[in-house]
Write a structure and sequence with these properties.
With 247 residues, the chain is of the alpha/beta class. The protein is built from 9 helices and 8 strands.
Amino acid sequence: MTQMNRVLIFLMSSLIYHTIDAQSISGFEEVEFVTTDDIKISASYGLAKSTIPAAAIILIHQGGSSREEWFALDLVKDLLDNGFAILAYDVRTHGKSGKDQGNLTDLFGNPNRAPLDLKAALDFLKSDTRVDSTRIGILGASIGANLACVAASSDSYPVKSVVSISAKVTAIESLGTVKSPTLRNAFHIASAEEQNGLRRGWAEELYANTSGHRAVHIADGRLHGSYILRENSPLQREVLAWFKKTL
């Protein structure tokens, strides 16, 4: 079996898994915004009216999935209940968002594709006066984790704190066009055995290169991305505590 076939099988299995288990959470509305290269991005937006202006957290799903993967987690409702605004969007070519001309493999490392989606999401939040634009965080899985790390390593992204789950250093370098990036205020999560231990090594490397607030958690097993959180309620509470501390 070729590496490309293994990637496609993994992505399709992720898509099926989240479709079966995804559930909606009240308090969210459907919104859209457009990237600088004219791609329509579809998102779910939740705002706790009791906390204005609110700190905001952007949720970025893993490849082959959609924003719906997050709604299987108690964490999302807990974040909303704790006063955070939540923006969960579909990365281009995924879910209800528009498609561009590139393929999935290129998407994971092209600085002119998925990073533009994140910048459009940030612009959307900055345009809402109910959001405190100085207190924006990111929770990302896989490609979402890589984007979170890019944001945490560049002043061009107005992001204060991130949680990265199953990040990949070489992809971060490609998406951010910076070798060996230095991050700020980041919590890195991976499974001990996912991708034969490579994701654990990358999480530990990123932790070593993080300044300010930093944390690392290596979970047992080989689960990937948001599925690590799905099987670990205490870790979801750690993520909530992280954002309450750092935003």
